[in-house]
Write a structure and sequence with these properties.
By secondary structure, this protein is α+β, with helices and mostly antiparallel strands. It has helices at residues 9-14, 54-60, 63-79; strands at 24-25, 29-33, 41-47, 87-90, 106-110. Bound molecules: adenosine monophosphate (AMP). Adenosine monophosphate (AMP) binds at residues 9, 18, 20, 32, 34-36, 44, 92, 98-101.
Length: 121
């Protein structure tokens, strides 16, 4: 696995060097809208810690960080109004997934019926 790169765009958002609309923030996570939304509601949730991907996060994060992060994901889904209607949570990891930003993040997509396809044919 590649080493964490402090210059990635989400690290810069966490440091306040690049602006974002802070939809939710606590000691474990930050949530902000995706800049290229693929659904009426498309939000990213990122951990505060330096993890390249969910693989890295699952292997190295503390139990407190993992619990705190996924609690934040649930809170964000409530806060942006998709918990009741439903949503899809996606975490890209590594080249075949086309992960673009090497700081672990989950996408929360909702606000419409998302269909049954999980991947592009
Ligand atoms: P992934 O392919 O899972 O790494 O997704 C990265 C996501 O980050 C893409 O959906 C981008 O649209 C989004 N993104 C990139 N830069 C920004 C930014 N400055 N603010 C918000 N979203 C961003």
């Amino acid at each position: 696995m590649t080493a964490y790169d402090d210059s990635n765009i989400f690290a810069r958002i966490l440091r306040g060097e690049i602006p974002c609309e802070r939809l939710y923030e606590d000691e474990f996570a930050l949530a902000f809208p995706d800049i290229r939304p693929q659904a009426p509601r498309h939000v990213l949730v990122i951990p505060k810690g330096k993890y390249v991907s969910i693989t890295d996060f699952g292997a190295k994060a503390t139990a407190e960080e993992i619990t705190g992060f996924f609690r934040a994901v649930s809170l964000v889904a409530e806060k942006v109004g998709v918990a009741g209607s439903g949503y899809r949570m996606i975490a890209n990891a590594g080249p075949d997934s086309r992960q673009e930003v090497p700081h672990f993040h989950v996408h929360i997509l909702g606000g419409r019926n998302l269909g049954t396809l999980l991947v592009t044919p």
